[in-house]
Amino acid sequence: MCEFNIPFSGTAETLMSRAKQEIERAGGSFTGNDEQGNFQAKTPLGSIYGTYQVVQQEIALKIIKKPLLVSCKRIQKELNEVMR
Question: How far apart are CA 53 and CA 56, in angstroms?
């Protein structure tokens, strides 16, 4: 399991709307609201399952299941880029 926090600017509503759109466009699923929820993101190596919780201007992410060959650092790097 991986856990990390990612700071963001703007509103949680805008961030979650964009995250939902990106994940679903890539064939994954996203359920929740502007405060907390869960997601499944698809990669060429398999799916990533996780939860999120928004606390002020940070999103706390817990990756519950991921492909063995996808590192936590790689997931964090990709999410950091999406959150900007």
Answer: 10
Question: Do 23 and 39 form a contact (C-beta atoms < 8 A)?
Answer: yes
For the four alpha carbons of 54, 9, 22 and 41, in that order, the dihedral sign comes to negative
Q: Which of these, 15, 2, 1, 84, lies nearest to 55 by C-alpha position?
A: 15
pLDDT category, 73, cuts 50, 70, 90? very high
pLDDT digits (tens, 9 = 90+) for 7-53: 998 999 998 998 899 889 989 999 999 999 999 998 899 999 999 99
Overall fold of domain 2-83: TATA-Binding Protein (3.30.310)
The SS3 of residue 41 is strand
Domain ranges of the chain: 2-83
Please name which of 21, 81, 83, 78 lies closest in space to residue 44, comparing C-alpha atoms. 78
